[in-house]
Amino acid sequence: MKRRPILAIDGPAGTGKTTSARLVARRLGFAYIDSGALYRAIALAAYRAGIESAEDDSIIPLLARLPVRAALTHRAFRVTIGAEDVTDRLREPEVSQLASKLAVRPDVRDRVVEWLRELASMGPAVIEGRDIGTAVFPKAELKIFLTASVAVRARRRALELAERGIEISEEQVARELVERDERDSRRAIAPLQRAPDAFEVDTSAIDVEGQVARILEAWGARIRPKRRPFYRLEQWLVRTSVRLIHGLEVRGSESVPRAGGVILVANHKSYLDPPLVGSLLPRETAYLAKRELFSNPVARLWLKNSNAIPIDRAGFDREAIDRSMNVLREGCALLVFPEGTRIRRPGFGEPKEGIAMLAARAEVPIVPVHIRGSWPEERRRLRRPKVRIRFGRPFLLEKVPAGRAGRSRFPGIAREIMDRIAQVERESPLESETRTP
């Protein structure tokens, strides 16, 4: 299941790289990395040190001692110099211009490339920049090259700067963009250019959601999730058996991200639920199963093949939580039942706070899933309903603070997750069709 893919987004300034990359990272559950922020951090440090020329070799000792750090999540890419968070200072015009000039220096580029590859080794990532797909990660799983007219790019950048309180005319921004494009395209080291295997998207006439949709569509078309033969066979057997014996209706499975860490949360009525939900997805899915099930050698073999993670339900099982986090960090899917056990009655049970802790720590998309018709009591009816499974739209939790303040929010988060599952049920009312023996 281990996989650490890279989605590289290249293109000139003002094409929407940053906004699109952030949103795509959030949809996939990947880390977001802004290569330009690292160049700008060097430029900001140089500017503060009185360095205004790319030829000034005073940058050499500065690079050696520069305490730049980056906070890596799919929500944002925060950069610090020493103890100071400088993220909001990095897009000031003078910093951007100096960053473009310094980027032609081999020593500066080598330092940034070293940072980028170190960050990317931590897990799946969406990385944006001007030469990410050509020079830094030439073997990225997918390369996107964004383009747009100069007029559109200048308007976007002027609005962006105005939101930060920086007033500058579109005409001046356009001139600076043209100069920067010329400089970046003609430089001898890693010039700005489209990789031969990159998927090009012209963003001049499409909004941000349109850009994100095209990138995700390209990702889904390029990435074919690898499933082991025995896992595929098990999926087919489970899916086919349920369809023939009980009847099966599935909706919304296309909303589940095809790659990247994702938590699927479902109500729980039957032993059938974990393998059945996993059998409906075109990617391998892990799930939590009570430790007692692993005592039987035959069951243990089957559970391991289906990516089950044993968990002790009597108390806090750190090993199970750690294994679940590793699954998500590796860009895989994890199925969790917030109620913690099968609910042998109509409706839902009370959610456990463990799901809130896992979701808050993982910071990946969460997909609510509603299951109906798998409850044994329903199966014994003369006119029994089909097994119906509905997948809802992915959502993300708000940032949860660390420590006691974060833990105090866990009960509310757990209830929110169960409410999302209930909402999927309300949005997909059952049809009258039933299946007779």
SSE diagram, text form:
Elements: E1 6-10, H1 17-28, E2 31-34, H2 35-48, H3 59-65, E3 68-72, E4 77-81, E5 84-85, H4 93-102, H5 106-120, E6 125-128, H6 132-136, E7 142-147, H7 150-163, H8 170-186, E8 199-202, H9 208-222, H10 229-245, E9 248-251, E10 262-266, H11 273-279, E11 285-290, H12 297-305, E12 308-311, H13 318-329, E13 333-336, H14 353-362, E14 366-372, H15 376-379, E15 387-391, H16 403-407, H17 410-427
Parallel strand pairs: 1-6, 1-7, 2-6, 7-8, 9-15, 10-13, 10-14, 11-12, 11-13
Antiparallel strand pairs: 3-4, 4-5, 14-15
Helix pairs in contact: 1-9, 2-4, 2-5, 7-8, 10-11, 14-17
Q: Output the structural class.
A: alpha/beta
Counting DSSP E segments of at least 2 residues, the number of strands comes to 15
> How many H/I helical runs?
17
Radius of gyration: 25 Å
Helix content: 40-55%
Strand order of the largest sheet: 9-15-14-10-13-11-12
What fraction of the residues are assigned to beta strands by DSSP? 15-25%
Which of globular, elongated, flat, extended, rod-shaped describes the shape? elongated
Mean pLDDT: 84
Biggest sheet, in brief? 7 strands, mixed
CA(first)-CA(last) distance: 39 Å
Low-confidence segments: 430-437
